[in-house]
Design brief:
Elements: H1 3-46, H2 49-75, E1 79-80, E2 83-84, H3 85-94, H4 115-122, H5 124-150, H6 158-169, E3 177-184, E4 189-194, H7 207-218, E5 223-231, E6 234-238, H8 247-263, E7 268-274, H9 328-342, E8 346-353, E9 361-370, H10 371-381, H11 384-397, H12 404-417, H13 441-451, H14 461-464, E10 492-498, E11 501-509, E12 515-523, H15 528-543
Helix pairs in contact: 1-6, 3-4, 6-15, 7-10, 7-11, 7-12, 8-9, 10-11, 11-12
Length: 554
């Protein structure tokens, strides 16, 4: 083979190598650009609303400046080779001057054009100015369109939520069981899921189910009655299931009872109390505990022992753990008897438990706050005594025995009638203290979504009762540190805590103005505070994330 032939044979090899090198460079550039864009997108989605607004303001200002400059150029045109056409036309009309450097014409005595003359010759400037007046109406329409768009803010995208939440869900402070669900409240559609349909231990977030069931079955305006009935000189205090009964409430009952007895000429009575409304054991499976009194339909101040609980400014019991009596009904009737004696009615012997005679006549009644108010109090302070009472009110409304088992069946039946996702759900109690409770993150977010439905106003206390991060209830002491502050005042959520179990379920309005319901659940945690911190950061990230666009998308 001659040298020339050998040269031609090397041409295809060289071309192939160039092509391969070019392809590799293209792929490397493309992959690198994708990684950079991905990092930018993730960073954008996790910025605070203030940071995002700053970027948008800067980008908007730059775009506005460019638009103004282009408009000015267009208005003073048209242009030809870098010179205004109007100016060139005038220069040609004047004679010898080229106009290239604003030189004078034949008479040599006129200076170059002034700006008003140039603009007048340009022509379109006046037209633009005139249309600008009409454009005022157009701008108003644009503002109306913007307002309408603001009322229809798109929900976050699933991929954007994944970028934001998945890294936090991998935190080692969480247990081996991790569940998450985020729902767009407007549509009820789940937009993020981490095994959201698989049930796990909810702890106190099960109170959301208790609340929705009670409000649906008994009604938001229902009040629980504690009554006093009399049959001759036999007086019976009848429990109706109000754990919030106070000493002042008993004093009012005693005063009304004494007045009715005196009208009948009775000043000495036999006193008894009736707790037959509830059935089954009054002991929760956790046994005697400072978090819950024995569950009876008659109790004073949730069975808290005198002198062991502080009271709020309104005289209501302080919430949280406290030593409890092992006989709440006996404690209540004893306090009632003392108040009755103080009204001048003598009591024979000691009060005993018995069912009120059918012929007995009601002589006094105290009604609790509305069920809606009780739901709010239960959720804000995670009140276990109210939770068990509300579960039994649901059972009574459904014709079930007012017991742990009956309440569980009633709650499930009501929720099933609402077409909620109950696969694998089990309601062993109303408070969440029982580790046999099982619900899914998907169920919790659907409960919250239903409560936000404008067509279901009776469920609104479920939302208004949620603690506010950094301010009220069980979230009052959280979100206070540097890492939690972004969620303070923005997150409203029900907490749940048992040994090794941490949950958080509630609502946020994200940085774009979209209302979202969320539930984060974990089991197998080793350190409570660390796990709670991760859950708080998850909710904060959701509240501060628009999670639907990147800087390039505006």
């Amino acid at each position: 083979m001659c040298a020339r032939e050998r040269g031609w044979s090397r041409v295809p090899d060289t071309t192939s190598r160039v092509r391969d090198t070019t392809n590799r460079a293209y792929r490397a550039t493309r992959d690198g650009a994708a990684r950079v864009v991905g990092r930018i997108r993730r960073r954008w989605r996790t910025t605070t609303p203030q940071e995002r607004q700053t970027v948008r303001l800067a980008a908007g200002s730059a775009a506005l400046g460019l638009a103004v400059a282009l408009t000015a150029v267009a208005v003073t045109g048209p242009w030809d080779s870098g010179q205004r056409t109007a100016e060139r036309t005038w220069a040609a009309r004047e004679g010898q001057g080229s106009g290239g450097k604003h030189t004078p014409g034949q008479d040599g005595g006129r200076a170059g054009l002034t700006a008003p003359q140039v603009l007048a010759a340009a022509g379109p400037a006046q037209g633009r100015g005139g249309s600008g007046g009409k454009g005022g109406t157009g701008n108003g329409a644009a503002r109306d369109d913007a307002s309408q768009r603001a009322d229809q803010v798109p929900p976050p995208t699933s991929s954007a939520l994944a970028d934001t939440l998945e890294p936090l869900l991998k935190d080692g402070s969480l247990g081996s069981v991790r569940r998450a669900s985020v729902v767009d409240v407007v549509t009820g559609r789940q937009i993020f899921s981490e095994r959201a349909s698989e049930p796990s231990t909810p702890a106190s977030t099960v109170k959301l189910a208790t609340a929705v069931a009670a409000l649906t079955a008994a009604g938001e305006g229902h009040r629980v009655a504690t009554r006093v009935v009399a049959d001759g000189d036999k007086v019976t205090l009848v429990g109706g299931g109000d754990p919030t009964l106070t000493a002042d409430d008993l004093a009012g009952l005693a005063r009304d009872t004494a007045g009715a007895l005196k009208k009948r000429g009775i000043d000495k009575v036999t006193l008894s109390y009736d707790t037959s409304l509830y059935s089954g054991t009054d002991q929760h499976p956790i046994g005697p505990n400072e978090n819950l009194a024995p569950v009876t339909p008659l109790m004073l101040n949730e069975g808290r022992l005198a002198g062991t609980s502080r009271t709020g400014s309104g005289g209501e019991a302080e919430h949280g753990p406290a030593p409890r009596t092992d006989d709440p009904a006996g404690q209540a009737v004893e306090a009632f008897g003392k108040r009755l004696a103080g009204e001048g009615v003598r009591i024979r012997g000691t009060a005993t438990a018995r069912e009120a005679p059918g012929a007995a006549e009601q002589v006094a009644v105290h009604r609790s706050a509305t069920l809606g108010a009780l739901v709010e109090r239960m959720l804000t302070h995670s009140d276990n005594d109210i939770a068990e009472a509300l579960a039994r009110q649901t059972a009574l409304a459904q014709g079930e025995p007012a017991s742990f088992d009956g309440a569980g069946r009633a709650v499930e039946r009501v929720l099933r009638r609402l077409d909620l996702p109950l696969k694998g759900a089990h309601f062993a109690d109303g408070s969440g203290l029982d580790r046999d409770d099982r619900v899914s993150a998907g169920l919790l977010t659907q409960l919250l979504s239903r409560a936000a439905d404008p067509g279901k106003p009776a469920l609104r206390p479920v939302l208004t009762g949620l603690p506010v991060a950094g301010f009220t209830g069980t979230l009052g002491g959280r979100y206070g540190g540097e890492r939690g502050e972004p969620g303070a005042g923005l997150v409203r959520a029900k907490t749940g805590t048992l040994t090794g179990v941490n949950t958080l379920a509630g609502t946020v309005v994200d940085a774009d103005g979209r209302m979202l319901a969320f539930a984060f659940m974990t089991t197998g945690t080793q350190e409570r505070d660390a796990a709670q911190g991760v859950l708080d950061r998850l909710a904060s990230a959701l509240a501060n994330c628009g999670c639907r666009d990147s800087p390039s998308a505006g």
